[in-house]
Amino acid sequence: MSAARKQYLSLYHKFWMCRRLNSTKCDTNGSKLKLDFKDKVVFITGASSGIGAQTAADFAQLGAKLALVGRSKEGLEKTAQRCKSKEKPLTLQADLQSECDIQTAFEETIQKYKRLDVLVNGAGIMEMGSIESTNLEQYDRTMQTNLRSMYQLCMLAAPELIKTKGCIVNISSVCGVRSFSNLVAYNISKSGVDQLTKSVALDLGLKGVRCNCVNPGTIVTNLQKRGGMDEEAYKALLERGKQSHALGRNGNPTEVSSAICFLASEMASFITAVQLSVDGGRHALCPR
Asked: Could you give the domains of the chain?
């Protein structure tokens, strides 16, 4: 194991030890590493369910002020109820295929909080299909939601994040690292997210803004079912996860949101342009 990897794992371990102890600061080689997001404004898309909802709950626990964006008004309200924070989160129902909806949601956030510290691009859809069966409407829908919306939000957020020396965390996928059959549009979109992440990191690095992404493996959410997978196929997918992940199991939203909070924290202050695999080692295997 490389020295850099050992250092990263050490910091990550200390992050969670401190969080379990409900501590806000840890000393490491004389430096104070803040674990709380008190007075920090965090904008999260895809917050009405799955990884986005869990990420919102975790940031709330760490003291953040939240702007939650999602398609489902009911889902957003449920997420807001899970957020145990002093100030009720701002909930913004929006269709991320709509440029106008994205612009409006962002403007309402700045109008309310007057600043932005963290952008979490978490919204995503999965269209099942091969190059033979995926039509252009499905392709466009996937790219609009999974990539174009992220690009637009990074553009909108950049001036605000430069002011606060903030950061961006994008949710990509193991499909951005490895290609899987019958997911052609999804694979392409997530590869785009990885390139967007690294490009933005290079563009904004000298202005004090970091940009990273997490690449989850199979996480137990409703993503696949919303993409058209039936119950039987979904059960089969989860069963295959025992062989397709090096750890012998599928992941859960908390394991991904933990990585997101870490990357957004001061403990990751020298980490940018990174694709962090949170996939139980799936990217290192060659599953079909």
From this structure: 19-275 (3.40.50.720)
